[in-house]
């Protein structure tokens, strides 16, 4: 049995668009999803951060009202992206579903999960008492909720998993999906990440950790990975989902293949709970492992879609890790300059972008890169998208907790 | 005090809000579970809203006995 794994479906809802096509178009056009937040809690708590990257299309415009009211926003975005990916893969439904339910798994991670539900329901308990607490509280706040709701919608009975590794969750989900498929445990996996936690306490928590940009007077220029004047990331929300299949299974059903998930590497820093190890050793090991796992050589990787969040500490360290693992040739980009930081969804949305870069032979530009940090000794795409024939590329994702995940994609 | 027709109309509004079922389909003979496909979590929400709307108490052991919309209307009419 071949261990090749292919990508047959893509779905996303992001600050740039309500689906994959609109997100990709906006990225290539150099648009930013960052804007001022007009929520009352910004004013009430005098937060020094008044910007974020909210969804371009609110879930309430897409999901039926009754379905939406039973779900936390992070579950809603997972379901929206998964439905797009499933339709894109053409796997059908009901009697016509082309995969046995027992051979279909879901792996969808989240960084924070249903935090907003937890806060809202706690307010109800404190102010109005037990009777007003929703019986749906637990299924709305549990971090396996996004995966579980997608599994329920699709009828997946081959296992539903929810890896949680902060900002690496979405990428880690793809890595686990790859393992399940290679092991032959299932034929199809719906995998990715979801996040929707733009609210007072998360913004306040990231503010106190000194990680967010405070460029409130110029939101669209706030997220500026690799630029000397970067001052932190911008919190975003969204979901990115891939349908992955054993290559043989996809070929047998005549599926359209958009690329190959060729390898993944997962390491941990064991260095500090939030700060990345400054030499990027653990990150470098993850990138190298992904390339090895894909059966490729460092020279094969033409492009790295960076985690680069626009924090002072993180961005330069990552470029050291890339150089250590791959050498000086990979061309970099940092999509968080346009999307903001989608936390648990970042790795999967950026994996979709990486795959599309290979498929279409074009790398989106890093926005707001006006003066490259002198610590960055690699070629970063800025200004305009760059046309480039790619056979293989890597997407990096790192998370609080010292999680490092790299995934490698190749052309069909 | 609401009469049975008013209770049915009020209950139908709650069921529509919680479970998305058209108010016209919420009729006395319908079973919440078998006909309207309402799960136990939604039944708790419906009961809490009905308590507020009609000023009744619906303890859990009573709620379990309310199989049809008509059962609920009768219970509310007797206990309001």
TrEMBL record, chain A:
Ketosynthase family 3 (KS3) domain mapped to chain residues: 2-411
Signal peptide: none
GO molecular function, one term: 3-oxoacyl-[acyl-carrier-protein] synthase activity
Catalytic activities: a fatty acyl-[ACP] + malonyl-[ACP] + H(+) = a 3-oxoacyl-[ACP] + holo-[ACP] + CO2; (9Z)-hexadecenoyl-[ACP] + malonyl-[ACP] + H(+) = 3-oxo-(11Z)-octadecenoyl-[ACP] + holo-[ACP] + CO2
Gene Ontology CC: one annotated term: cytosol
Protein name: 3-oxoacyl-[acyl-carrier-protein] synthase 2
GO biological process: fatty acid elongation
Physiological role: Involved in the type II fatty acid elongation cycle. Catalyzes the elongation of a wide range of acyl-ACP by the addition of two carbons from malonyl-ACP to an acyl acceptor. Can efficiently catalyze the conversion of palmitoleoyl-ACP (cis-hexadec-9-enoyl-ACP) to cis-vaccenoyl-ACP (cis-octadec-11-enoyl-ACP), an essential step in the thermal regulation of fatty acid composition.
Organism from which the protein derives: Pseudonocardia bannensis
Keywords: Acyltransferase, Fatty acid biosynthesis, Fatty acid metabolism, Lipid biosynthesis, Lipid metabolism, Transferase
Family: Belongs to the thiolase-like superfamily. Beta-ketoacyl-ACP synthases family.
Pfam families: ketoacyl-synt (PF00109), Ketoacyl-synt_C (PF02801)
Active-site residues per Swiss-Prot or TrEMBL entry: 167
SUPFAM superfamilies in the record: Thiolase-like (SSF53901)
Record pathway: Lipid metabolism; fatty acid biosynthesis
EC number: 2.3.1.179
Automatic annotation (TrEMBL), chain B:
This protein's name: Acyl carrier protein
GO MF annotation list: acyl binding; acyl carrier activity
GO BP annotations, alphabetical order: lipid A biosynthetic process
Keyword hit for Lipid biosynthesis: yes
Segments forming domain Carrier: 2-80
GO cellular component: cytosol; membrane
InterPro entries noted in UniProt: ACP, ACP-like_sf, PP-bd_ACP
Sequence positions bearing O-(pantetheine 4'-phosphoryl)serine: 40
High-level lineage: Bacteria, Bacillati, Actinomycetota, Actinomycetes, Pseudonocardiales
Task performed by this protein: Carrier of the growing fatty acid chain in fatty acid biosynthesis.
Pathway, per record: Lipid metabolism; fatty acid biosynthesis
Key words of the record: Cytoplasm, Fatty acid biosynthesis, Fatty acid metabolism, Lipid biosynthesis, Lipid metabolism, Phosphopantetheine, Phosphoprotein
Pfam families documented for this protein: PP-binding
PTM statement from Swiss-Prot or TrEMBL: 4'-phosphopantetheine is transferred from CoA to a specific serine of apo-ACP by acpS. 4'-phosphopantetheine is transferred from CoA to a specific serine of apo-ACP by AcpS. This modification is essential for activity because fatty acids are bound in thioester linkage to the sulfhydryl of the prosthetic group.
Homology family: Belongs to the acyl carrier protein (ACP) family.
Subcellular location: Cytoplasm
């Amino acid at each position: 049995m071949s261990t090749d794994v292919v990508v047959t479906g893509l779905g996303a809802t992001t600050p740039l668009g309500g689906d994959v096509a609109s997100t990709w178009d906006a990225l290539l056009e150099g648009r930013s999803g960052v804007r001022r937040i007009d929520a009352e809690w910004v004013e009430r708590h005098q937060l020094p951060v008044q910007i974020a990257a909210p969804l371009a299309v609110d879930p309430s415009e897409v999901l039926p009202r009754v379905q939406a009211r039973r779900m936390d926003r992070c579950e809603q975005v997972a379901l929206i992206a998964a439905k797009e990916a499933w339709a894109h893969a053409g796997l059908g439904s009901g009697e016509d579903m082309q995969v046995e339910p027992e051979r279909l798994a879901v792996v969808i991670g989240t960084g924070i999960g249903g935090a907003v539900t937890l806060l809202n329901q706690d307010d109800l308990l404190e102010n109005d008492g037990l009777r007003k607490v929703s019986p749906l509280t637990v299924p709305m706040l549990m971090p396996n909720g996004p995966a579980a709701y997608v599994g329920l919608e699709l009828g997946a009975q081959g296992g539903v998993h929810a890896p949680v590794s902060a900002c690496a969750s979405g990428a880690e989900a793809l890595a686990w999906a790859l393992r399940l498929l290679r092991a032959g445990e299932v034929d199809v996996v719906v995998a990715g990440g979801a996040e929707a936690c733009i609210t007072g306490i998360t913004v306040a928590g990231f503010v106190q950790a000194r990680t967010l940009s405070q460029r409130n007077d110029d939101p669209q220029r706030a997220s500026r990975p690799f630029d000397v004047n970067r001052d932190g990331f911008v919190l975003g929300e969204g979901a990115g989902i891939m349908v992955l299949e054993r290559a043989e299974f996809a070929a047998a059903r005549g599926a359209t293949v958009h690329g190959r998930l060729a390898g993944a590497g997962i390491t941990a820093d064991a260095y500090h709970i939030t700060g990345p190890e400054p030499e990027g050793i653990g990150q470098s090991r993850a990138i190298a492992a992904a390339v090895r796992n894909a059966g490729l050589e460092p020279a094969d990787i033409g492009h790295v879609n960076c985690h680069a969040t626009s924090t002072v500490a993180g961005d330069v360290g990552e470029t050291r890790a890339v150089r250590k693992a791959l050498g000086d040739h990979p061309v970099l980009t940092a999509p968080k300059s346009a999307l903001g930081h989608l936390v648990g969804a970042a790795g999967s949305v950026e994996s979709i972008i990486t795959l599309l870069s290979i498929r279409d032979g074009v790398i989106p530009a890093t926005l707001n890169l006006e003066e490259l940090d002198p610590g960055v000794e690699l070629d970063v795409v800025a200004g305009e998208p760059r046309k480039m024939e790619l056979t293989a590329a890597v997407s990096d994702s790192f998370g609080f907790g010292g999680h490092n995940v790299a995934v490698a994609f190749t052309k069909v | 005090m609401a009469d049975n027709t008013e209770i049915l109309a009020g209950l139908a509004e709650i069921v529509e809000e919680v479970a998305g079922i058209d108010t016209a389909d919420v009729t006395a003979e319908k079973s919440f579970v078998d006909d309207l496909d309402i799960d136990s979590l939604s039944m708790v929400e419906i009961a809490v809203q009905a308590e507020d709307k009609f000023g009744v108490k619906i303890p859990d052991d009573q709620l379990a006995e309310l199989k049809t919309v008509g059962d609920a209307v009768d219970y509310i009419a007797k206990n309001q």
